[in-house]
Structures are given as structure tokens and as C-alpha cells.
Design a protein that fits this description.
By secondary structure, the protein is of the alpha+beta class. The chain has three domains: 177 residues, Sandwich (Immunoglobulin-like), CATH 2.60.40; 119 residues, Immunoglobulin-like, CATH 2.60.40; 37 residues. 20% of the residues lie in helices and 47% in strands. Strands 2, 3, 5, 7, 11, 13 and 14 form a seven-stranded mixed beta sheet that branches. It has a five-stranded antiparallel beta sheet with strand order 1-4-6-12-10. Strands 18-17-20-21 form a four-stranded antiparallel beta sheet. It is flat. InterPro entries: WxLIP_HBD, WxLIP_PGBD. It holds the Pfam family WxLIP_HBD.
């Protein structure tokens, strides 16, 4: 068997931001991993790249070592590969949905414990069971093994009280499962174009899928948006050097440069290229009044530009002043009536 030691390299960094100064998280609970490469490992890679057979069952191992002087529990997550909005592959936990073209989900084929507890300075194997589909499969099934130190109850309580940045580190080990060297030609499919928010900024999203069971590499996306029936380009973007995971989709954002979103009918011209192949789509889409009002109210750029609403403040101040005058005259009138009654009583006496 081949062995490769990967120590101290963190593939994922998760940061929970609070207010204040930086606080190291679980610095005294460090652990390392060592991937044990089986005979069907293809190539000299850091990740598992396994040549499998239909219906094959196999167990692979990752050696985990606790470098701390106290017990710690390692949380284990198994996740299918996704493509984020930047055209970067994600192998860790993700809110991105599976694409409709995905036939076999990685986490349905690869199973393992949800966590493993290591004693002080202990080394123990994490065993992962792979069960390939019975039917033959051309292409790649891709996912990641996510390893993260679990905080103790005491540490969880301390973190709740802490004011600062809490850094949580995790390892992610990739795994690619295939049954042949058959070259799969990339196939992209346009799903939709719609309005939304990207990083709390007005944007137009283009959602398209890689429906093939292989990676799309060196991908470039070019988009132009016009009003329906017009040739004048309102917004455009070009971004290169992106990738897509097999059988995954991407929500690609085109930010509106701080502009207010306007309701109406629009058209998007989309060009995607990858290693000599290209896909072109023209898609009409609509932004409703409700959508425009909703996203304009949430766009942080527009909120900052609006700043202080002096007109609203003037209206409020005017209303308060009028109410004050009304109360003043009412009280004054009541006081006059009281004085008039008192004078009338004195005269009768």
C-alpha cells in the first residue's frame, strides 16, 4: 500500500465572526491525518482517486492522530462535490442543492462514523465503506471527507461568553470514484435567469448545470444584459479560470454596480467556454415590481447611499410641531373658559 502524510495543511477554514479581538479555537486540540492509499489508487495525488468496479465494495482508511494531551472528538462529514457562485469546487458542508442530473450522490455510496474519539496522543484509523452501484457507470462520482475537532461542553460555554473571532479549522480530503478511463464530453444546460441579491447587492443570476459526469475545467463565463428589444448593454461581466464539479449547477451572479433595480422585461446573452467548447444562450426574463422593491430595500449599497432621510425627518418634525401647537391652543382655550366661569361666579356674589 502507498502512504502519503498530509500534516498541518488546512483545506477549509471556517470563521465565526463576533465583535472584538481574535480568539484561537481549540488550539490545544490539534490533530493530523494520514491517507492510506489502496492498490486501486490512480496517480500520485493528495486525495483518493480510486478505480472501481460495478458493485464493488471497499473500505479505505484515514489515520487520525491526536497531538493533544487530552481527549478529543473528531467530527466526520461526507459531502458530494458542489460548485459555488465563484466557480470554485466545494467538498465540505454546503447549502448548495444537488443538480437534477446527479444520478449517484457521493454520500449515499460512501459511509462512515459521524465522529471518532481519540485519547491523548492516540492514533486510530477512520474507516470508510464504499459501495459502488451495481450498474456500470461512465464518469466520476466526487465528494469530500470533512474532518473537524468537536468542542467540549466546557469549550462551547466559553465560546458563548467569548467576544472575538472564533476560528474553527477543518481538513477536507477529496475522493474521486470512477470505473473507467472513458473521456466524458462536458454538457452544459441553461436553467434560468432571475433577479436576486449577491452579498446583499442587487444582482442578476444565471443558473446553469454541468449535466455530464466529469469536471468542467478552465471555464469562462461572459454575460450581457439588455432591456428587451434594445441592444444597449446595461450590465456585463466576464470571468475566467472557473471549474464545475460533475453533475452540479452554478448560480452565477452579475452585480448591478450599486444601481437601483427596476421592474421590466430584460434579455441575457450568455457565452460559456471550456477547453475549446462553447455554449451560447439568449434568455428573456422579467423583474416584477415586488422583486425590485424587495431587493432595493435590502441592497446595502443603496441603504448607505440613502443615508439620513431628511425629508422624512422634516415631516416628522413638522407633525410634532403641529401637534404641539394644537395642544397649546386647546389648553389655552380651556384656561380662558375656566377664568370666564370664575369671573361670572364672583359677579353673582
Amino acid at each position: 500500500m502507498k502512504k502519503r502524510i498530509s500534516i498541518g495543511l488546512f483545506f477549509s477554514l471556517y470563521i465565526a465572526v463576533l465583535l472584538g479581538f481574535s480568539t484561537p479555537a481549540y488550539a490545544n486540540l490539534q490533530f493530523t491525518y494520514e491517507t492510506i492509499k489502496p492498490e486501486n489508487q490512480q496517480g500520485d495525488f493528495e486525495y483518493f482517486n480510486l478505480l472501481m468496479q460495478p458493485g464493488q465494495k471497499q473500505t479505505v482508511q484515514v489515520m487520525l492522530s491526536n497531538r493533544a494531551d487530552e481527549e478529543q472528538t473528531i467530527e466526520v462529514g461526507l459531502n458530494g462535490a458542489k460548485t459555488n457562485s465563484n466557480g470554485v469546487l466545494e467538498y465540505g458542508p454546503s447549502a448548495i442543492k444537488n443538480d437534477a442530473s446527479l444520478k449517484y450522490d457521493f454520500k449515499d455510496l460512501v459511509k462512515g462514523p459521524k465522529e471518532i474519539t481519540l485519547g491523548p496522543k492516540e492514533t486510530r484509523p477512520l474507516k470508510l465503506d464504499i459501495s459502488m452501484p451495481e450498474a456500470s457507470y461512465d464518469g466520476k462520482i466526487v465528494g469530500g471527507i470533512h474532518l473537524k475537532s468537536k468542542p467540549t461542553k466546557k469549550e462551547e460555554e466559553e465560546n458563548k461568553k467569548a467576544t472575538g473571532v472564533i476560528n474553527e479549522y477543518a481538513f477536507v480530503i477529496g475522493m474521486v470514484l470512477s470505473e473507467s478511463d472513458t473521456v466524458i464530453k462536458p454538457e452544459l444546460q441553461l436553467n434560468s435567469v432571475y433577479a436576486g441579491l449577491s452579498n446583499y447587492r442587487n444582482s442578476i443570476f444565471t443558473n446553469f448545470s454541468n449535466t455530464s459526469a466529469d469536471f468542467v475545467n478552465k471555464m469562462t463565463v461572459e454575460i450581457e444584459v439588455t432591456k428587451k428589444g434594445s441592444e444597449a448593454v446595461l450590465y456585463d461581466i466576464k470571468r475566467a479560470d472557473m471549474r464545475m464539479a460533475p453533475n452540479s449547477m452554478i448560480d452565477f451572479p452579475l452585480e448591478m454596480n450599486g444601481d437601483q433595480m427596476e421592474a421590466g422585461d430584460y434579455k441575457a446573452h450568455i457565452l460559456v467556454t471550456s477547453e475549446g467548447q462553447e455554449w451560447t444562450w439568449n434568455k428573456e426574463f422579467k423583474i416584477t415590481n415586488e422583486e425590485a422593491d424587495k431587493y432595493n430595500a435590502q441592497d446595502v449599497t443603496l441603504i448607505q447611499e440613502r443615508g439620513i432621510d431628511w425629508k422624512l425627518i422634516a415631516m416628522i418634525a413638522g407633525g410634532v410641531f403641529i401637534a404641539f401647537l394644537a395642544i397649546f391652543f386647546i389648553v389655552r382655550t380651556l384656561n380662558k373658559k375656566k377664568k370666564t366661569k370664575k369671573r361670572g361666579k364672583k359677579k353673582r356674589k
